[in-house]
From TrEMBL:
Residues annotated with 4-aspartylphosphate modification: D56
Domain notes: Contains a C-terminal catalytic domain, and an N-terminal region which modulates catalytic activity.
Annotated CDD domains: CheB_Rec (cd16432), REC_CheB-like (cd17541)
Protein name: Protein-glutamate methylesterase/protein-glutamine glutaminase
Main location (coarse class): cytoplasm
Domain CheB-type methylesterase: 149-341
Active site as annotated: S161, H187, D283
Organism of provenance: Caulobacter hibisci
EC numbers on record: 3.1.1.61, 3.5.1.44
Domain Response regulatory: 5-122
Record keyword Methyltransferase present: no
Family statement drawn from the similarity comment of this UniProt entry: Belongs to the CheB family.
Entry keywords, A to Z: Chemotaxis, Cytoplasm, Hydrolase, Phosphoprotein
Record's comment on post-translational modification: Phosphorylated by CheA. Phosphorylation of the N-terminal regulatory domain activates the methylesterase activity.
Amino acid sequence: MAKIRVLVVDDSATMRGLITAALNRDPEIEVVGAAGDPFEARGMIKALNPDVVTLDIEMPNMNGIEFLEKIMRLRPMPVVMVSSLTQAGAEMTLRALELGAVDCVGKPTTATGTAEALAEVAEKVRTAARASVRTKADAAPVTARRGNYLPSGDVVSIGSSTGGVEALLAILTQFPETCPPTVITQHMPATFTASFAARLDRASGAKVQEATDGALLEPGKVYVAPGGATHLEVVRSAGLRCRLTAGDPVSGHRPSVDVLFRSVAQAVGEKAVGAILTGMGRDGAQGLLQMRQAGARTVGQDEASCVVYGMPRAAFEIGAVEKQVSLSSIGQSILDLASARR
């Protein structure tokens, strides 16, 4: 099988060398070139035709965001962003993911962090090579329709991974101020989730916030699982509440979509709607099946609109998905299922 051809773009010669060495250790990957700035990278993309580009955000002459915009407009291809784990870095990375970058990896700041981050970048590159990359012009338009939802007391739970930033923005743009209480687990670095919740809050009619332990689930509010250290669950305790629990990764992730969905199946049962979105792997499939078996309504993002049709496929194949829906209409489909319909 042909190796994944990668171009590394970073203004630091040291970082270029570290990333190149880490990627070349993976038997599925071959680094075909390394560029110190976007101008050099532009020529190398034309000459080398790589399958994936790793792109630093903070570079001289033209930053990674500006270069990514040009790539996605002129020659759409899988891009993995390499970002500093700072507040400013998080916000710029989220912008990159909105523009079409497949995924992001945090730039290491310590010797221990270097080994972990470099191992992660190879995994992200392998995922990116299988991703479906589309320009904004290719994406089906999403129109906010906020007049059809009637509150019913249902709870919505959503799980997503690679490609989830764009997908969740599209969905929550359709959510009204009166939306059902909604809990979300998106695979994302710990330092990014607060900025991501704030970005979703600006886009949605609902109030979106990072979940806190003990927070009461209320209509009109959306709760995003913090990245990294805990799982998000829904429990009954004087109402329905968020619970953040420490523990090992489940289905390869912390927070885990499976953990969230299983808790919703147990605490909410048939008064719930579950949605599984774009992402690599199987996280969420078994949990969504438990939700459906408990009487909840379930939807999955369809293959044509997924960046990576992994998690929705796994859920669909085991019978966890009641129906598959395109990204352009999945937000309204969730609201329809959660509406006062029964």
